[in-house]
Design goal:
By secondary structure, the chain is an alpha/beta fold. Helices cover 43% and strands 19% of the residues. Helix 2 packs antiparallel against helix 5.
């Protein structure tokens, strides 16, 4: 079991600083409910301090103006630390999120390292300056960092998504304030420790775990040049509107309801085991999860039977064990949400072929891997993101119909 640290300070301006209030986020294990650790909750005043630090680091340098190769060296130091601490970080994320440890290794930490590795190399090779022909003679084109970035992070893939925002900001010479979600501040602060150890100039990277209100304060803070948000569609609409009012650059990565199309000549013995991990990835709490399985009407029953069999055989249990396929959902409220979708699917006429309830003998926030057959694409369970281990098999007539449904 990983040794989980609690924190009593925020990471702002290259230092561990006292938070403005005594508010904390407590993180409880989704498996046992026990307290894993706590982290200070950043409020508006802390956001202002983080923005001021990031602003100063961008406006007064040296980060944006130093040779790109030096920025890449600092990024490489962070990458080396991510590799050196990969096992511990993966165990921490599994403890905090409840995702199977195998997924933590490749989907949480490995993916984060891959992104940082990519941007570190890009920083070394990118043509930040070039001369191009212009109407009145040669023009020097210089690509510069956008400025102070705010990264708003969801709980499901916390470190990978932080890295998707951090690595390009670092590469371009921007500075950043990362706001981990209240559910996963421990992995956020673990990354803050690695950033601190890697040694960036003060204020280049700041970590302020916070809730919605302080998050909105950050999104609208006058010193922020760019907002990058990953999370729910509802929050994305709000953040997009706030940025629109300010003509502030904004990137939104929101929810999903991806479809996998199985064609009528598919070898189901190969396709089903290949597809299933994408459907139930991260216990189904993934924006890219392929949760709608589109099956040709001629082979519909066969597809349903194969998926039913495969889902019933999944190992549900302790996410810290290497052979566990499905762990608990992040929180009780998430389990309530998934169960309400299962009830809705049944009430709208879909048929549960496996699962549908809670597994016996497991106390955490578990839901059985659940397959729905007889699903029409207009049903709620086919239209809305469930964010749990629940898949729906939808019939199609021909390829054009499949594409339309997808
Ligand atoms: P959420 O929208 O509730 O929260 C995401 C983050 O935004 C959290 O840090 C939260 O504190 C913050 N937040 C919420 N409202 C805010 C506001 N008004 N102003 C500023 N910050 C605000 O989402 P969640 O429940 O943490 O994550 C699950 C969702 O994220 C799912 O819908 C999932 O599909 C989506 N997601 C998308 C991607 C992607 O790449 N497209 C990746 C992962 C997750």
């Amino acid at each position: 079991m990983v040794d989980i640290a609690s924190y009593d300070k925020l990471y702002i301006g290259g230092q561990w600083v006292e938070p403005s209030s005594s508010n904390t986020f407590e993180v409880h294990s989704p498996v046992t409910g026990e307290l894993l650790g706590s982290v200070p909750e950043a409020l508006e005043a802390d956001m202002d301090a983080a923005v001021a630090a990031a602003r100063d680091a961008f406006d007064n340098g040296p980060w944006p103006t130093m040779p790109a190769a030096e920025r890449a060296d600092a990024m490489q130091r962070l990458l080396d630390l991510v590799y050196a601490n990969a096992d511990e970080l993966a165990q921490l994320i599994t403890a905090e999120v409840g995702c199977p440890i195998l997924f933590s290794h490749f989907g949480q930490v490995g993916a984060a390292a891959m992104v940082l590795d990519y941007f570190t190399n890009l920083t070394r090779t990118y043509e930040f300056e070039s001369v191009r022909p212009g109407m009145l003679g040669p023009v020097l084109v210089r690509k510069e960092g956008v400025g102070v970035c705010a990264g708003i992070i969801p709980w499901n893939v916390p470190v990978f998504i932080m890295m998707l925002k951090l690595a390009p900001a670092l590469a371009s010479g921007s500075t950043i304030i990362l706001k981990p979600a209240p559910e996963t501040p421990l992995s956020g602060m673990f990354l803050a420790k690695l950033v601190d150890e890697a040694g960036f100039p003060p204020g280049v990277v700041n970590f302020v775990p916070a809730g919605r209100e302080a998050g909105e304060h950050l999104v609208t803070a006058p010193g922020v040049d760019k907002v990058s948000f990953t999370g729910s569609t509802a929050a994305g609409k709000k953040i997009g509107a706030l940025c629109g009012e300010r003509l502030r650059r904004c990137t939104l990565e929101l929810g999903g309801k991806s479809a996998a199309i199985i064609l009528d000549d598919a070898n189901l013995d190969e396709v089903v085991p290949a597809l299933l991990p994408y459907g139930i990835m991260n216990n189904g709490q993934a924006c890219v999860a392929q949760t709608r399985i589109l099956a040709p009407r001629s082979r519909y029953d066969e597809v349903v039977d194969k998926f039913t069999e495969a889902m019933a055989a999944l190992k549900v249990g302790d996410p810290a064990e290497m052979d566990t396929d499905i762990g608990p959902l992040i929180a009780e409220r998430q389990r309530d949400r998934v169960e309400s979708y299962i009830a809705k699917g049944i009430s709208e006429g879909a048929r549960v072929t496996t699962g549908g309830g809670r597994p016996d003998g497991l106390a955490g926030w578990y839901v059985e891997p659940t397959l729905f057959a007889d699903v029409d694409n207009s049903m709620t369970i086919a239209q809305e993101e469930i964010f749990g281990p629940v898949l729906a098999v939808i019939p199609f007539d021909d390829e054009a119909d499949a594409v339309k449904i997808a």
